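Practice set, problem 2.
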Amino acid sequence: MSRMLRGLQWALIGLGLVLIGVFIASLVHRALGSRMAMRDFETAREAARAAPPPLPTAEPGPTRALPVALPVDTTLWAQGRIEKYRESLNHDFAAPLAILRIPKIGLEVPVLDGTDDLTLNRAV
């Protein structure tokens, strides 16, 4: 009985470490995506100041691909999860609409259009 409990204990410790790793990877991925979106916003804002205002069009704004993700060990993932992860890496985002800055709490995040999980992981 104690041998089985010891095995369960190690399995739960391993699961806890994996979950902590996933959490840290998501924080890093969010920070990198947010930083890239803010850089795109600043670039678009500087370009808008230098150029005359464009005529209105029905086409969406410029898009960009996500930066290359950190290497992730997917050997324990389900096939569906791996496919969704790869799909998220190929997703294009429009340039941010604005940047929300609250200096008192040290917050600086891009504002993107949309409310899906992928968008909300990278911006507000």
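Problem 2, part (b): a different protein.
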Amino acid sequence: MGKILTLLDGSIYTSSVCDHAIWAAKRMDQPVELAHVLGHRQGGPSDLSGNIGLGARTKLMDELAQLDADRAKLGQLRGRAILEDSAERVSKAGVAVESKLRQGDLVAEIGVLSEDADLIIIGKRGEAADFARGHLGSNLERVVRSCNKPILVAARDYQKINRAVIAFDGGPSSLKAVDHIARSPMFEGIELHLLMVGADAVENHRTLDGAASLLKGAGYEVDIELVQGDPADEINSRIQDGGADMLVMGAYGHSRIRSLIIGSTTTEMIRRCGVSLVLFR
């Protein structure tokens, strides 16, 4: 039996992340594992010897070391409080839940924690969300790029999910998304809009029809659409016009270097989209 790994950082997205975990857990009949990862600066003392100039007094060194230790202790206490509050919220909803406080590099820790996970849930933005509304959480892209498990990126507020847009381009990650939806109970009963942004070509129609047939064969109600234009604009428009509650798409289909040069539809959609997303790599 798998689990739903739910990453918490104490931001204003924490409640939404927990509510999405409850939603997914009930649909997938799986337990939730809450995780809060302390960075090295938060979780333990650092070596301050290189930060003091020549002639510094030993007393100052001791005081700085104590300050660092106090900061680490505070980070651990805060992490436990976040986990306790979130575990109570999930447990009250009737979902089995465990909590883990870890220390180290976030991506490395997620790699270990997610080995037996079927879904990872994370908030769209971190603790500075109110101060940087146009920016994503500093760790979000790192997590998405490093994980091969489906990742649910929670919007700020949870809303009941009745209709989802699947951004489909025929590539490996979008094919993986369609196959996963066809097999997973997480999307049962949700109306699906399969959208491809590309040329009005026979091959695109054939690929789109094949994906729709797979979903319809699994019992889903699916409508399909092939449009031309800017992918981010068209996808965002369909979400707003169609009243979709979730976006499903492949993530970062090109290399990081290429994304830096021409931009990334994934990053743009996470930034602009007002609903939660499920990403596949």
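Answer key, part (b): Strands lie at 3-7, 32-38, 97-103, 117-123, 151-154, 163-167, 191-197, 222-227, 246-250, 276-280. Residues 58-92 form the longest helix (35 residues).
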